[in-house]
Amino acid sequence: MGALRETLDLERLDDLLFRSGSAATRNTRVFGGEVAAQALMAAGRTVPGDRHVHSLHAYFLRPGDPGSPIVYQVDPIRDGGSFTTRRTVAVQHGKPIFHLSASFHRPEEGYSHQPPKTERPEPEDLLPGEEVIAAADPATREWFDRVHGDSPLEIRFAEELPRFAALRGESAPPIQRFWFRTHETLPEDDPLLHACAVAYASDLLLLCSSVAPHARTLDGGDFQFASLDHTLWLHGVPRADDWIFYDQEGMWAGGARALCRGSLSDRSHRLIGSVVQEGLIRPVG
């Protein structure tokens, strides 16, 4: 079980230069959401505290090495009257592995609307993700432990994962829905930390939804997969240590790529974030 605040506690080397510790993971590459969250944290620590992140746009360039620190170089693109823009490049072994542009906005009043409420189970009515996976096959248990065993997030699945249908040789709709929250309580007066936690979670399992109609799993050995680019819009200040519902959909696939989207809402059905990601799903063999 990872500690999110420790993961996001970057060492400040200079005004615009930060460094992470080594990633605590059993994977051979750093989880993309971790790099995104750290890059956003680096950017946010150069921004006035009265401005909150409202969007990030990122490209995954190279896999991150979990055994080495990552250096984050922040470029102060613009400080305007209402908006502040930052660019962060993550560098490891002398090469850029990740590029992020983020925008921060001073809170303002304005018109407001959002999509209607959707039906969903409450998190208290669902089993912890670990209990659901414990009843699965050994390969799924190993997969979940590898991708989630060190995660700082608690997960509860709203319905059967498409992965289970694929292991039965069945296709499924490209939809995944689950609740998440951080294991640890986060300070209420640190909106940047909560935003970075949501950025971390926004990459979780999203690309898996894209292969459900094809009765495949990404770790089945017949796919080369990776996140290519990732966008997150935050529609307000989230609380990542309270339950957030993540509704994911694999919208399109073709040309060895897939486009996925997701919506993030809190317990009151308030839409707090929107996600779009394109990923590589290249059949091999």
UniProtKB/TrEMBL annotation:
GO terms for biological process: acyl-CoA metabolic process; fatty acid catabolic process. Keywords: Hydrolase, Lipid metabolism. Residues 27-105 form the Acyl-CoA thioesterase-like N-terminal HotDog domain. It comes from the Bacteria. InterPro entries: Acyl-CoA_hotdog, Acyl_CoA_thio, HotDog_dom_sf, TesB_ACOT8-like_N, TesB_C. Residues 104-125 are annotated as: Disordered. It catalyses: a fatty acyl-CoA + H2O = a fatty acid + CoA + H(+). Residues 157-280 form the Acyl-CoA thioesterase 2 C-terminal domain. Pfam families: 4HBT_3, Acyl_CoA_thio. Residues 105-123 have a biased composition (Basic and acidic residues). One of its GO terms (molecular function) is fatty acyl-CoA hydrolase activity. Belongs to the C/M/P thioester hydrolase family. Homotetramer. This is Acyl-CoA thioesterase 2. It comes from Actinocorallia herbida. The lineage of its organism: Bacteria, Bacillati, Actinomycetota, Actinomycetes, Streptosporangiales.
